């Protein structure tokens, strides 16, 4: 990367105008991580919350060895719940298995639903089957978005043995829950998933029925391949 360009971005990050600082962060999109992270750190504790939020998100995308401990520190100790939620989300982007325990703690211990939501989503991104119990607990939440996140994440971690627990949401009043269910079932290979997807493919909401149709096609193809592999004469 041209050093003059980096110097210009660095100067823009020092601008008293928050819009300039946001634009500078956006311009780091195509900058190599090793050059971008030192610049991101300049505004990690910016006085303007949207600037901080964008910087935290950027640490999840521009991955160096520095990013993980910074994000963990923000998740566990930042006084602003929005930043803690951003840090949880960024840890999901990192896909670093070390984040499993901190994300589980955030889900159980943080009092803000947004942080717990981000933690649940990121546990799905980690694709760690150990998240199963946490996500099942999230299904019992009074927060609809937590249920949505948990259903999606159970699909991400391919927790096939939880199909019975999530099928009860096939008749949920919330169409987004039904859509997340339709998407998740496409990754949970079982006959019950097929039956549920055929039901959801008839849903009155077009986004639910379309998600179910796509998942059904995917799942039928995968199960067919598995059958062929186990029975060459089939």
Automatic annotation (TrEMBL):
Identification of the protein by name: Phycocyanin alpha phycocyanobilin lyase
Superkingdom of source: Bacteria
Keywords, sorted A to Z: Antenna complex, Coiled coil, Lyase, Phycobilisome
Coiled-coil regions listed in the entry: 202-229
GO cellular component: phycobilisome
PANTHER family: DEOXYHYPUSINE HYDROXYLASE, PBS LYASE HEAT-LIKE PROTEIN
Ranges that cross the membrane: none
GO molecular function, one term: oxidoreductase activity
InterPro entries xref list: ARM-like, ARM-type_fold, PBS_lyase_HEAT
């Amino acid at each position: 990367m041209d050093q003059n360009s980096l110097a210009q971005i660095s100067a823009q990050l020092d601008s008293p105008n928050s819009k300039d600082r946001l634009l500078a962060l956006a311009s780091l999109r195509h900058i190599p991580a090793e050059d971008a992270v030192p610049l991101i750190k300049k505004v990690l504790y910016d006085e303007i919350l949207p600037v901080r939020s964008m910087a935290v998100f950027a640490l999840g995308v521009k991955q160096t060895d520095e990013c993980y401990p910074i994000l963990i520190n923000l998740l566990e100790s930042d006084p602003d719940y929005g930043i803690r939620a951003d840090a949880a989300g960024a840890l999901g982007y990192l896909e670093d298995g070390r984040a499993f325990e901190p994300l589980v703690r955030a889900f159980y211990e943080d009092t803000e639903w947004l942080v717990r939501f981000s933690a649940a989503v990121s546990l799905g991104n980690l694709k760690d089957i150990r998240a199963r119990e946490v996500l099942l607990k999230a299904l019992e939440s009074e927060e609809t978005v937590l249920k949505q996140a948990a259903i999606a994440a159970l699909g991400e971690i391919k927790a096939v043995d939880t199909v019975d627990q999530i099928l009860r949401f096939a008749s949920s009043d919330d169409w987004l829950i039904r859509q997340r269910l339709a998407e998740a079932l496409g990754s949970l290979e079982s006959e019950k998933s097929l039956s549920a997807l055929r039901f959801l493919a008839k849903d009155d909401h077009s986004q639910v029925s379309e998600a179910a149709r796509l998942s059904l096609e995917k799942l039928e193809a995968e199960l067919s391949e598995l059958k062929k592999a186990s029975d060459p004469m089939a």
